[in-house]
Amino acid sequence: MENKTLREIKVSEIAPNPYNPRLIFEPNELNDLKSSISKVGILVPLTVYQNSKDFPKEKYIILDGERRWRCATEIGLEAIPANVIDEPKDITQNILFMFNIHHFRKEWALFPTALKLEIIIDKLGTDSETVLNEFTGVSRSTIRRCKALLWYPPKYRDILMEKGGRISTDFFIELHPIANRLSYEPDFKYPEGISFFVDKCIDKFKEQKHLSDVKELREIRKALGFYDKSNNFQEFVNKISEFINNDIGLEIFVSEDLEEERNRKNILKYISYLNTNLDQINPDLISDIYFEDQLKQLQKRLDAIIESID
């Protein structure tokens, strides 16, 4: 990107970028910005390039500042300050310029970002999070979330683009590990089998009866991990089929074996915590009768468990 040249440019000579990842503009935010611009003008210049293409027909194309340009247009400003840089050589560079310009600004909505990231993935020939982060400046965690959304069959893109819709991007992200793993099973092959599964989960969520919060999907993910690790994944598949096809809640994924595994992990976590912290604790600070009694009870239980293991 070359050195910028600051100019006053007619608003009518500027057009929004057809490849802008930001497709959603909040009306309330635009109204607040419009009010500020009406009072003090545009304090942060736009970034534009001189257009050599037939479309759009305007002389300059926005790389950064479409919200400011929209407000200036509505207010009726004749000219606005803009930094003019060299025209991107192709669509890929155009999008990459916008990603990098916006890196330190407010993030775009997730799915519009994912759609533009998809173009970059196609052009670069890789979906490596390291490479995409280096080129776009988008965090790896955001790239990972975008890739999860792009994985779904195209039929869900209208739902994902719906601003403030009942089925949010979080729903699809929480569901992704489950759907992705199921896609390797004959009954849930991608895309038809996965579409059937996702549609059923959406129906459950809309009913707000057996699935009312996207975070509840994590209970299913815990069961998935347990059955996958115990080489009994078919039982999980059977439970999924029962869950999506019947009037059944998340309790179907609860089992004694799963609860025992959770307890085991929790106990290991607390034992590790005790081993780390008891070595560092000052005995003078815990020399009260209650603390001593608790330690003795713990010792008895540990001795009994160790003896049963041996």
Low-confidence stretches: none
Large-scale geometry: elongated
The fraction of residues in strands falls at: 5-15%
State the strand order across the main sheet. Answer: 1-5-3-4-2
Multimerization status: single chain
Mean pLDDT figure:
86
- Largest sheet features: 5 strands, mixed
Order of helices and strands: EEHEEHEHHHHHHHHHHH
Rg (CA only):
28 Å
The helix count comes to 13
Q: Count the domains.
A: 3
| Cα-to-Cα separation, first versus last residue | 69 Å
Structural class: alpha/beta
The strand count comes to 5
Could you describe the 3D structure shown?
The chain has 310 residues and is an alpha/beta fold. It folds into three domains: 1-90, Conserved hypothetical protein from pyrococcus furiosus pfu- 392566-001, ParB domain (Alpha-Beta Complex); 152-257, no CATH class; 258-309, no CATH class. 56% of the residues lie in helices and 8% in strands. Helix 4 crosses helix 6.
Write a concise synopsis of the structure shown.
The chain has 13 helices and five strands.
